[in-house]
Amino acid sequence: MKRQDVQPIYKRAQKHRLFWRWSLVFFVVLIVVGGSYGIYRYQRNQLLKQYPIKGVSLSQTDGYIDFEQLKTDGYKFVYLRASQGSVYTDDSFSNNFQRSQGSQLPIGVYHVFSFSSSPNAQFKNFTRQVGYDTGSLPIAISVQPYDKYNEDTLNYKRVSKDLKLFISKLKNYYKRPVLIWTRRSMISKLGMRINSRQQLWTSDGKLGHPNSDAMFIFVDSNADVKMDNQTVFLNESVFNGNAHQWHNYLNRNLSQ
């Protein structure tokens, strides 16, 4: 066989070996990643067993949600986004709230706090959207850094003053406790007190770790939930306590 005939065969064999070598590497990586994710999911599910009361928070981006199906799937409470800042309102709020009533699930509502709008304007926006459809759970205020308003650039003195005024208006108007949904570092920097009338919903709490001051713990922004033969991904949180404590918590809130 001539030399020029041997070279193409050699090159094909070399490419063949490289193909199988990289295929093996890819397969090993796939096994490692898949195994790691499987271990993570297993450990997470084991930790979640310590928190039997789980719930979801919904907004218009989640589409149509069957509340009866949520109940069947073991969810014990739902929070609905009502408004954001001084202008924005959630298009699905009214429909979600009305449909949720037939499920007998404890319902709460939440407002996304804006760092660029006045507390008075935000209060008017919230009350105009919600009226008295506040459900049975404490009213929640989501206080999360966004865009240019990150933890390093926030004017904490001004934000603290605005947030406290907004909360004061909510308490006086609705005669209800509130939940501050935020990071622990934000609570500290804003100088917010946590008590029975002003509770904490931590967005960065770790399952299985001490969270004694938190009433709720945010768990997952992509919890997979079966809904009408398809999977939807929802924001999932848990109540920081057992079933007996949850029952007492609901009774306290209903009596206020």
TrEMBL record:
- Say which species the protein is native to: Lentilactobacillus kosonis
Q: Which PANTHER family match?
A: LYSOZYME (PTHR34135:SF2)
Q: Which GO terms describe its molecular function?
A: lysozyme activity
Which controlled-vocabulary keywords does the entry list?
Membrane, Transmembrane, Transmembrane helix
Task: Look up keyword Transmembrane helix and say if it applies.
Answer: yes
Record Gene3D superfamilies: Glycosidases (3.20.20.80)
GO BP annotations, alphabetical order: carbohydrate catabolic process; cell wall macromolecule catabolic process; peptidoglycan catabolic process
What is the name of this protein?
Answer: Lyzozyme M1
Q: What is the lineage of its organism?
A: Bacteria, Bacillati, Bacillota, Bacilli, Lactobacillales
Where exactly are the transmembrane stretches of this chain?
20-40
Q: Which family does it belong to?
A: Belongs to the glycosyl hydrolase 25 family.
- Please give the InterPro entries that the UniProt record associates with this protein: GH, Glyco_hydro_25
Which superkingdom is the protein from?
Answer: Bacteria
